[in-house]
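Let us practice reading a record.
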Amino acid sequence: VQLQAYGGGSVQPGGSLRLSCVASGFSLGDYAVAWFRQAPGKEREFVASINSSGVRKNYADSVKGRFSLSRDNAKKMVFLQMNGLKHEDTAVYYCAARYGNNFYSRASGDYNYWGQGTQVTVSS
């Protein structure tokens, strides 16, 4: 059972990145998926989540209107499109999954499987 996050990189403020999270060893379509991020010296924080079918989504206020989640269950993948990036978006981004359709949880402890993280750096 594994999640792998990738797609991070360095961009200038206002730029865009698309993060991907791919699952192996389990049926991602049975799981709600969330993205969290952790900046240096700060606690891990919730970014966004999506329910198992991909119809319903939940975003942190800090990214609402700029970030967008989607998923392709056939490919076992979830995508986080990040537009209008700001300096404060710099962090390591993690994808996480929890069994079932409850995508409202913003607590990292509620998610069972985690990817290894991918670095996003926004710098001018």
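A brief commentary: The chain has no helices and eleven strands.
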